[in-house]
Amino acid sequence: MRTLIAIVATLALACACSNPSARQQVYGAETVHLGESLGVLGWNTSISNLRWQDDYVLVDVDAAPSDPAKPHADTRDIRFGLYGALAHPMEATGNGSCDGVKNLVIQSLSAPGGTRLTGTVCLGPMKDRAAVRGVYLYSPRDRIADTAAAYPAAFPVGVMPTKESDTGLVVKSTSVAAWRADGTQLTQASLGDPAAFNGSGYMLLGLEAHTIAAKYRDDSAGRGGPMMLLAAPTLPAPGLNAACTAYGASVLILPEASLDAVHINASLCTQGDLNDALLYATVAIVGTHAAVWTVR
Questions:
Q1: Segments of the chain scoring below 50 in pLDDT
Q2: pLDDT score recorded for residue 69
Q3: pLDDT at position 23, please?
Q4: Where are the alpha helices (DSSP H) in the chain?
Q5: 237 CB-near residues (< 8 Å, 6+ apart)
Q6: What count of Cα atoms within 13 Å lies in the side-chain half-sphere of residue 20?
Q7: Average pLDDT, the chain
Q8: N or C end of the chain: which has fewer CB within 10 A?
Q9: For residues 217 and 292, what is the distance between their CA atoms, to the nearest angstrom?
Q10: Are strands 290-294 and 170-180 parallel, antiparallel or unpaired?
Q11: Whole-Å CA distances, 14 to 23, 239, 296
Q12: Run of H or E residues at 96
């Protein structure tokens, strides 16, 4: 009898190791160690060689379509972020992430022919090295069906506290600031000026998202991935201001798995026509697929 139990246990372990669905997950995101490969967003991806230069984290990426005949995420949409106990999310779109980093002798991430993704991604600036546990990736254009909820984020109020029953998260604005494209800051008094909102401009939203970690873990596992925040409208990089490039229009809600609570403070940018970017801005909470590479 003991021999039979041992055989069954061994077979179960072997099945778990060979079954991709049995991989460790962080809030529904498949997780492997740096240097290993997994399939996500239609790409078979490996992330390796995490190192620091000045106050930036550098990682090497090598990816190819899992099946060339099937759809895969556009390389221009893939965002990378630092995983760990960070005070503020640190993300960047892979292509162009190293453009502002000086004194680098590397091959920046590129997609030659659109059939391969290879090169180095730069994330930072980041001074707290002890907080970094790895790197994650996702695409703001990848949405899990029937998980989205959108909210008005009009200047100068931003997002009012959302109902946890909507998405499992409570999200609210902590700050709202807006500028015209020429650098003129807009205030609440600007709402009385009919000419103030002509032309282009941008708005920076400080956002807070929180919930109970155990609940978020269960919800994400059932959903198939974590949630992300999406601000709209936006423009392609470089956009109207360096702050919009730095903060972006999306952020993944993926805190370090050992934390007891999910509590994220993030900044997002809306930009474009002033009426659209300030008075008709929205923030959406949407489920997405993601992957994490952790330090051993």
A1: 1-22
A2: 87
A3: 67
A4: 2-18, 164-167, 213-223, 242-247, 274
A5: 93, 96, 245
A6: 8
A7: 91
A8: N
A9: 15
A10: unpaired
A11: 12, 50, 22
A12: none
The reported pLDDT for the residue numbered 169 is: 97
3-state helix, strand, coil in the chain (%, to 5): 20, 40, 40
Cα distances from 29 to residues 21, 149, 188, 227, 241, in angstroms, run 11, 20, 41, 10, 32
Q: Could you give the strand order of the β-sheet that contains 200-212, starting from the edge strand earlier in sequence?
A: 185-186, 170-180, 200-212, 261-273
CB-based contacts of 138: which residues, under 8 Å, 6+ apart? 29, 41, 78, 79, 81, 225, 228, 252, 288, 289, 290, 291
Domains defined for the chain, CATH in brackets: 24-138 (2.60.40), 149-287 (no CATH)
Alpha-carbon distance values, 8 to 5, 13, 15, 136 (Å): 5, 9, 11, 35
pLDDT of residue 237: 84
pLDDT of residue 68: 87
Residues contacting residue 66 through CB under 8 Å, at least 6 positions apart: 39, 42, 43, 44, 72
Would you state the structure tokens that stand for residue 234, as one six-digit string? 């936006």
> If you search the block for the tokens 């400080």, which residue do you land on?
206
Phi-psi region of 258 (alpha: psi -120 to 50; beta: other; left: phi over 0): alpha
| Nearest-10 Cα torsion for 106, 107, 108, 114 | -170
Position 105, amino acid? V
Q: Which residue has the tokens 């009012």?
A: 160
The residues, ordered by sequence, that sit 6+ positions from 32 with a Cβ below 8 Å of its Cβ are 23, 24, 38, 291, 292, 293, 294
